[in-house]
Design brief:
Length: 422
């Protein structure tokens, strides 16, 4: 039996995959170790969403390949040749090939390179797992999506939508709660189209999970605005349940409908505006998180200004800003690219705009007092989340999974600061 080190990067679905890989390793009789210096074999679960991330993965692969190595996650599936250029002996395990984890581990330990990149219809619900955070149950509800966004390499890794059965997901959530989780994340490549391939949808799932009679909070993960018009009414109603964080992550990417068309996003800036308006009308202090790409090949100065205007108008609480990078194998990578210095100028302008807006949004919370679920230890204290999924740091000694009343005393661009009120 071997000592195995597992490391993961990327989105919550990628972390969920690493928890399942660790569970399968442990169930296979091997031992998990905390550090690659103690291991007989290393597994790195990669992300390849951006150039910068892919470069960081290559750097990690180089440093971990001193021992038998398995490169898992999105990078080997989207860019097999790139990975093999830097490590020809490493075994490869795709994001939809987890069923072959143990076989790949055992072959690699015997010095045999194994390539398992084929998508299997294995449901990732109900697999053994070793949680990265005992308070948080990450539940994958599907893999892949129904879109073909021209900038996106994730599509090459995750493929077309495969939704997992609603009943299985609800059972998995019960297991997470019975095993001590206080926060459940429903995650996938695009939650917005969940269930369209199996005759159900996301609001139905959220309602079914929220009906579980236990004390927990539910975070509904990222969704492409494209499918929101079909589920918007029922989805917003499902957020009425106190268990559901008043938080939505809807990546709009651009404020220009022409650019959104060239991105094949399948929605307009108005689709996003209407979602924001809908939830803000129904809920006080609802947290909108969105993603913005600047420097997409067809983005003109006028298009860019439409994005600036959309952010000013909707004032999202969280904006994940990316400079466009041409990902290998994507359609837009073939197009004429915008000069890097111009992309930098645009991202600097939007970054300053976002920092001002998010600080103003956060300062409105100073003086608020209410329940906070503590879900993550930090270097100098602990972080928790309130009903609007706001990140709140306190210096007090608090156990993970505990809920306490907190008063907000200060705010920063990215989070709130508080003290235990009782
Ligand atoms: S919805 Fe678009 S951006 Fe998201 S994973 Fe699918 S193709 Fe990529």
């Amino acid at each position: 039996m071997a000592k195995i080190f597992v490391e993961a990067y990327g989105c919550s679905a990628s972390f969920a995959d690493s928890e399942m890989i660790s569970g399968l390793i442990q169930n296979g009789g091997h031992t998990l170790v905390e550090d690659s210096s103690q291991s007989d074999l290393n597994v790195v679960v990669t992300c390849s969403v951006k150039d910068a991330t892919a470069n960081k993965m290559i750097h990690r692969i180089k440093s971990l390949k001193t021992k038998p190595l398995i490169v898992a996650g999105c990078l080997p599936k989207a860019e097999k040749e790139t990975v093999e250029k830097f490590t020809e002996n490493a075994s490869l395990l795709g994001p939809n090939s987890l069923g072959q984890t143990l076989q790949v581990i055992n072959s690699t330990l015997k010095g045999r390179k194994e390539i398992a990149l084929e998508d299997s219809d294995l449901s990732k619900v109900g697999l053994p797992k070793v949680r990265l955070n005992p308070a948080v149950g990450i539940v994958e509800i599907a893999s892949g999506c129904m879109s073909e966004c021209t900038f996106c390499q994730t599509k090459l890794s995750k493929g077309d939508l495969v939704s997992y059965r609603l009943g299985d997901i609800v059972r998995q959530v019960r297991t997470e709660i019975n095993e001590g989780c206080k926060e459940i994340w429903l995650t996938s490549t695009d939650n917005g189209c969940y269930g369209f391939d199996i005759g159900t949808d996301l609001p139905t799932l959220v309602n079914a999970v929220a009906e579980i009679p236990d004390d927990f909070m539910l975070r509904v993960g990222m969704m492409n605005p494209m499918y929101m018009p079909r589920i918007k009414e029922e989805l917003v109603k499902s957020f009425d349940n106190d268990k559901v964080f008043k938080f939505l992550h809807v990546p709009v990417q651009s404020g220009s409908d022409k650019v959104l068309h060239d991105m094949k996003r399948g929605h307009t800036a108005n689709t996003y505006r209407e979602i924001v308006q809908k939830v803000r009308e129904r809920f006080e202090n609802f947290t909108i998180s969105t993603d913005i790409i600047v420097g997409f090949p067809s983005e003109t100065e006028e298009d860019f200004e439409k994005t600036v205007k959309l952010i000013d108008e909707t004032k999202p609480e969280v904006v994940n800003l990316s400079r466009y990078s041409a990902r290998p194998g994507t359609e837009a990578a073939e197009w004429e690219q915008i000069d890097v210095s111009e992309v930098k100028r645009r991202s600097k302008k939007i970054f300053e705009q976002i920092s001002k807006i998010t600080l103003e949004n956060n300062q409105k919370w100073i003086g608020w007092t209410g329940k906070v679920l503590f879900d993550e230890k930090t270097d100098d204290g602990i972080k928790g989340r309130n009903y609007a999924y706001k990140p709140i740091f306190v210096k007090d000694i608090v156990d993970i999974g505990q809920s306490l009343t907190v008063e907000i005393t200060d705010a920063t661009v990215s989070s709130l600061v508080g003290k235990i009120a009782s």
